[in-house]
Amino acid sequence: MQPEKTRIRQKRLQIQQGVISIACLALIVFVFSWLINTAVTGRKHGLLPASAGKNSSSQAEVTMKKKNTSSAASSSAAESKADTSSQDNSSADDSAAVYDGAAMKDDFSDACFIGDSRTLGLGLNCDKAKADFYASQGLNISSALTDQVIELQNGNMGTVLEAVAQKEYKRIFVMFGINELGWPYPENFVEKYEELIEGIKAAQPNASIYVQSILPVAASAVNNDAVFTNENINAFNAYVEQAANETGVNYLDINGYFKDDSGMLPEDAAADGIHFVRAYCLKWIDLLAYLVPQPANG
Amino acid sequence: MKFRKSICIFAAAVMAASMLTACGGDDKDSGSKSADSAAAVQADPAASAEDFAANLRSGITYVDDLNTISADMIEKLYGISADKYSSAAVYVGGVSTAEEIACFDAVDESAASDILAACEKRIEDLKTQVESYNPDELPKLNTPVLLTKGNSVYMCLSNDNDKAEEIIG
Hints:
The complex is a heterodimer. In chain A, the strands form two sheets. Chain A has a five-stranded parallel sheet, with helices on both faces. Chain A has a two-stranded antiparallel sheet with strand order 3-4. By secondary structure, chain A is an alpha/beta fold. Chain A has helices at about 1-40, 50-60, 75-90, 115-125, 145, 160-165, 185-205, 230-245, 280-290; strands at about 110-115, 130-135, 150, 155-160, 170-175, 210, 250. Chain A is elongated and about 120 Å long. In chain A, strand 1 (about 110-115), helix 4 and strand 2 (about 130-135) form a beta-alpha-beta unit. Chain A folds into two domains: about 1-45; about 55-290, Rossmann fold. Chain B starts with a helix and ends with a helix. Chain B has a five-stranded antiparallel sheet, with helices on both faces. Chain B is α+β, with helices and mostly antiparallel strands. Chain B has one domain (about 45-170). Chain B is built from seven helices and five strands. The chains are: A alpha/beta, B alpha+beta. The interface of A and B includes residues 28, 45, 117, 136 and 138 of A.
């Protein structure tokens, strides 16, 4: 009996050791597989690496499409460029937009920018220290004519028109409209816009004036105010174009460059759905440098 | 038997090593990294204004996307020329908030005084900008973090003044 019990114990022991050995081997295989997988895919804790997120974000940035070009920049040079970039964008969604990096060769030292908080944000983020930005938060096409919100070179506060008369410019970029979306009488908007353009022309008779279309908003912008919709912006852009045409200045239809496939400004383009973050300010200035290059004698 | 024992010991060693590695990775990725970094910068007498600004950027949650600006833009925005500081970093957003960071190591006491005045003017300018258009941002400007330590000037406009003061030390 005794040897029989011993044999059974030995067999049980052998089975236990076998099970433990197999478990250990399986564990080793699992750990090595996991280490190899981590090394090859770069995944950590089940999250994609930061670089992957950046890639997808930058890809979203370059898939902006320009809308139909029938009303694109009315100056012949700008119009021709706008058409070209539209074709290039539609055929090469996965590559960088043709205007990417255009502002690197243009310091905008001959230019000034007039507008509201969106233009103010452009001035902060586009790294063009030699350009002048005559812009203020909450400024609209009416208050731009009267409010002394711009610090002049002499240290006093003045209106946009007083600021623009301080030195000679070759290119003047204007954008208003986001703060006027709730105005009930669009004809008043057109009238004031034309008054501002005529004032700029009088102050800078040799400059080329470029009136930009109102930039799109993200879907979340409507949380700030119900008037912030792209339908409303599209309607007002027709009035902006009307004001440009009636005063004989250039109209730059840049709105469509910043829309995604759903016709909206991407959510990551603006913290509040309205004011561009740096990446989009850089796209904006690149686009302007591409559509309206600095004159040769700068 | 000896072979099986060896396998078991090896497996235990691999397991222990992988657990230690995993723990190390967790520590690096946790939120304590920025706190450690902030403490290191505070304790480091050689830490520059750029280091403090980077810690203020990473150690506080902001609504806006804050990015650094060039020396030319610092001069344009603050009126502070590069010869007044040995190190500086200014982070600005996209105008949707009043959030901003500005840290300077001035070259001397007089320059530090000018930089402090320039930061105070910047805060007043921002107040004028937002008071009618975006009054929700006024609290950040009415109680700004604006501190000097020796010839260094630190400004942080955020929703978390306690954290900003803790980082600056």
